[in-house]
Amino acid sequence: MNSRQSHPTIPVVVLAGFLGSGKTTLLNHLLANRGGTRIGVVVNDFGSIEIDAMSVAGQLGDSMVSLGGGCLCCAVDGSELDAYLEKLSAPVHRIDVIVIEASGLAEPQELIRMLMASENPAIRYGGMVEVVDAAEFDATRARHPETDRHLGVADLVVLNKTDRVDPAERARIEAELAGLCAPGTPVIGADHGRIDPELLFDARPWARTRGQLSFEDLLAEAADGEREHGDHTGHAHAAYESVEFVSEQALSPRRFIDFLDRRPAGLYRIKGFVHFGVPGHDERYEVHAVGRFLRFAPGPWGRGEPRVTRLVLIGSGTDGPALLRELEACREPRPHLAGPESMWGVLRYVARPPQEERSDPAADPDPAADPEPYPDPAPNPAADPEPDPEPDPEPDTVSGVRAG
Predict the structure, then answer these.
(1) Do residues 299 and 388 make contact, with C-beta atoms less than 8 angstroms apart?
(2) Run of H or E residues at 255
(3) Which helix (H) or strand (E) element contains residue 181?
(4) What's the CA gap between 21 and 161, in Å, rounded?
(5) pLDDT confidence of residue 265
(6) Residue 246 above 70 pLDDT?
(7) Which of 90, 115, 167, 280 has the CA that lies 20 to 30 A from 226?
(8) Is the pTM of this model over 0.70?
(9) DSSP letter at 205?
(10) Distance CA 204, CA 217 (A)
């Protein structure tokens, strides 16, 4: 089974931030540290993306170029976005994730609406990341009052250039961000845009090619040389910790949603699969959270696949043992006794219930009794275009994360 068969929908991450915040630096960092992940990039122009450094393989036409190693980049304006998303998501490119640089394309809220209203079955909205310049935070807000509005809809905030402010100033900015962002929105500190790609998408492992060195080989050798000299440029993940939770027992949907609703701001990402075992809802529920963005995607279990919950939680400054204890408390020994209403909290974060559920009105949550998790224009996973499919079973797929 190839990647596109097992992953018919591609997450689309919106990367926003004003000029000078370090947004493009972060994007270039993701491209240079993506391992074997195939990234589609949507930008206004190619000038700011390090195409020469990424060893352009050739022009593809229609404002689209190859960055080498499976990455594609296209320059668009807002009216062209749908067309290029359709091109990037074509199976022939086998793209794993698409990153849109929002600046100049449209207001982030408009991009979010466009993505969640998209009728393209090959893509799904994957969250919005806002990049903030710590050294110019006050000046940026003065020049761009809309900054506060952008922060209000962000799922994850990267406070960049933290190396240019002292600890007291950083603490002041983080306190202001906590008031400007939606409750629970994580704020990640970074310098030179260095964050772990695993915080945004599953990075595939890089495999050395045979024969003539590829650009991937050169990047890996350069990173190895930097590490030998004590440079931790390639070690962005060292700032984060990850814990893994496995349960052969089903989880209570209500207790699990309570856990997700109160997850700490330092818990940046959650990914994995959950078994609830509630009658009529015995599917495997993939869970994906980036910052406060949350979605579930029901799908079938594989033939002979055990009904097991497997979760990976990535964060910074979190209490790993405490998180595991809370998850242990979500175990449910008698899921078969639970009624369909116990799943309503989960179904709020499902893009589209399975066909059999949509045909049974009793299985659908009451919209009046169970409102949307985020008011418009905040990213609302309930409006996400397509359920997420099963994970890629190919041996080079990263199922866990590196321990920090």
Answers:
(1) yes
(2) helix 253-261
(3) none
(4) 8
(5) 81
(6) yes
(7) 167
(8) no
(9) P
(10) 15
What are 187's two structure tokens? 């704020």
Distances (CA, A) of 187 to 142, 177, 287, 292: 21, 8, 21, 11
Residues, the chain: 404
- pLDDT one-digit tens code per residue, 284-314: 999 988 888 898 989 999 899 999 999 999 8
Q: Nearest-CA neighbor of 26 among 99, 78, 89, 110?
A: 99
Dist. CA 30–CA 353, nearest whole Å: 33
Q: Shortest CA distance to 308 belongs to which of 335, 284, 327?
A: 284
SS3 197: helix
The answer on pLDDT for 399 being more than 60 is no
Average pLDDT over residues 152-169: 94
- pLDDT for 109: 85
What is the secondary structure of 121-165 as a DSSP string? TTEEEEEEEEEEEGGGHHHHHHH-TTHHHHHHH-SEEEEE-GGGS
Cβ(138)–Cβ(148) under 8 Å? no
Lowest mean pLDDT among 198-212, 228-242, 331-345: 228-242
DSSP β-bridge partners for residue 294: 289
Per DSSP, the residues of 332-399 read -S-GGG--GGGGHHHHTTBSS--HHHHT-GGGS--TTTS--SS-TTS--GGG-SS---PPP-STT---
| Mean of pLDDT values over 219-240 | 48
Mean pLDDT, all residues of the chain: 75
